[in-house]
Design goal:
Helix 1 crosses helix 2. The protein is of the alpha/beta class and 326 residues long. The protein contains 11 helices and 8 strands. The chain has one domain: 3-Layer(aba) Sandwich (Rossmann fold), CATH 3.40.50.970. The longest helix is centred in the first third of the chain and has 25 residues. It binds thiamine diphosphate.
Length: 326
């Protein structure tokens, strides 16, 4: 899958994966100190989807995301500093401290909004794609969402509408196998094929390994060229796995939850997107293990600086608290 990706892009994909992972891990540790008063859904383990897709999009393409949105915000160009300040509730946060983890935005980079209402962002992206199409513009509107959205009627209405109007919509499902603590097996018929289901509404669909950043990047390129050539919406079904609890910074086994085991999670950690990306770069002699370590350390240091700067920023002024809220 990697042979047709240019070396500098492969390196960029690796660095972005590391930035997203380390930002979330550092924020998850800080979260335990009880200074972030926002429910927070970490996407640790799922980074390859956000990084692979957003790296294939242009800066002026727009994306929407759901409750587990840090990865998408960062991969689309949102800053670590703006995310950290938002989680600390500071005036300098990307949503001026009014939104919290589930309401991120960075419009200048095309990350329009995230929202916790399941299915809403698929509809918002299709609405955005309609507006792009009516303007005769060339952008793409994308939405990221989890497998639970495949159980929401508005998703199918949105795909149907995008298909019949040939809209430039990229719908990306991060199938991590769970909706909170309910596995797919109790929610859908066995052997369910989401791609076939979405194809029935007229969209083109592709299922991929969502833990292989280069495979995601290649698939996203394919989807994007399909959409830009005017062939209508594309559904990308990415198989991945969430490492932490549904909401919060801990592992499920640390909280004595039984809907999945520590071993289940560890088996998926073996398929870690960063581990896999590192191994490929070393095998293909693009970077040595020492070089990769050095890049990781530089990225961590920059994240630490951004997070401490965000922490020392001011709170919003209570007198202005209703400003910037719609
Ligand atoms: C319309 C709606 N119904 C129910 C909920 C409650 N809820 C919040 S997250 C969640 C599960 C989401 O699972 P999925 O979409 O697969 O994403 P994941 O959390 O696995 O990333 C549910 C049911 C909601 N936010 N919105």
């Amino acid at each position: 899958m990697s042979d047709n990706i240019r070396t500098e892009i492969r390196i960029k994909l690796f660095k972005e994966l590391v930035c997203v992972r380390k930002t979330e891990q550092t924020l998850a540790e800080r979260y335990k100190q009880q200074e972030m008063r926002t429910p927070t859904h970490f996407g640790i383990g799922q980074e390859a989807v956000a990084v692979g897709v957003c790296s294939a999009l242009n800066r002026d393409d727009v994306v929407y995301s759901h409750h587990r949105s840090h990865n998408h915000y960062l991969a689309k160009g949102g800053s670590v500093y703006g995310l950290a300040a938002e989680l600390f509730g500071r005036e300098t946060g990307c949503s001026k401290g009014r939104g919290g983890s589930v309401h991120l935005t960075c419009r200048e980079e095309g990350f329009i909004a995230s929202s916790a209402i399941l299915g809403e962002t698929a509809a918002a992206a299709v609405g955005s794609a309609l507006s792009i199409s009516m303007d005769g513009a060339k952008q793409i509107a994308g939405a990221f969402f989890g497998d639970a959205v495949l159980e929401e009627g508005i998703f199918y209405e949105s795909v149907n509408y995008a298909s019949i109007n040939n809209l430039p919509a990229l719908l990306v499902c991060e199938n991590n196998g769970f909706a909170t603590e309910s596995p797919l097996s109790v929610r859908q018929p066995s052997g369910i094929d989401f791609c076939k289901r979405v194809e029935a509404f007229g969209a083109t669909a592709l299922s991929i390994d969502g833990n292989d950043v280069e495979a995601v990047y290649n698939a996203a390129q394919k989807a994007i060229s399909h959409i830009r050539s005017g062939k209508g919406p594309f559904f990308l079904h990415c198989i991945t796995y969430r490492w932490c609890e549904h909401v919060g910074p801990f592992f499920d086994h640390e909280m004595d939850r039984t809907y999945r085991t520590k071993e289940d999670v560890e088996a998926w950690m073996e398929k870690c997107p960063i581990k896999r990306s590192r191994a490929k770069l070393i095998i293909d002699e693009i970077a040595s293990s020492d070089q990769l370590d050095e890049w990781e350390a530089e990225i961590q240091s920059s994240i630490d600086d951004d997070i401490s700067r965000a922490y020392s920023d001011p709170w919003p002024n209570p007198a202005d608290i209703f400003e910037n809220v719609c």
